[in-house]
Amino acid sequence: MQAIGLIETRGLTPALEALDAMCKAANVRMAGFKRVGSGLITVIVEGDVAAVTAAVDAGIAAYPKTGGQLVSSNVIPRPHADLARMLL
């Protein structure tokens, strides 16, 4: 794995909309889906750095049409093996 991309939303529908856009926009794979609590959902994708960056950007761009709340997004290039194991 070369990079991990995360998008955190408030609500399931916005998270699924962002994940759909991410997977369609670039050659990434869904690596995880976490329900944090209080309606917070984090979707995690993995792939090469450029693809993950493009996917996260596409997920953020597709997000406003859901009417939900985007809490956070991040791309972690070359994550440490322990961090990747903890997230995935």
Automatic annotation (TrEMBL):
Record-linked Pfam families: BMC
The entry's keywords: Bacterial microcompartment
Domain (BMC) ranges: 3-88
Localization terms from the record: Bacterial microcompartment
Annotated Gene3D superfamilies: 3.30.70.1710
A GO-annotated cellular component: bacterial microcompartment
Highest rank taxon of the organism: Bacteria
Family designation: Belongs to the bacterial microcompartments protein family. CsoS1 subfamily.
Protein name, per record: BMC domain-containing protein
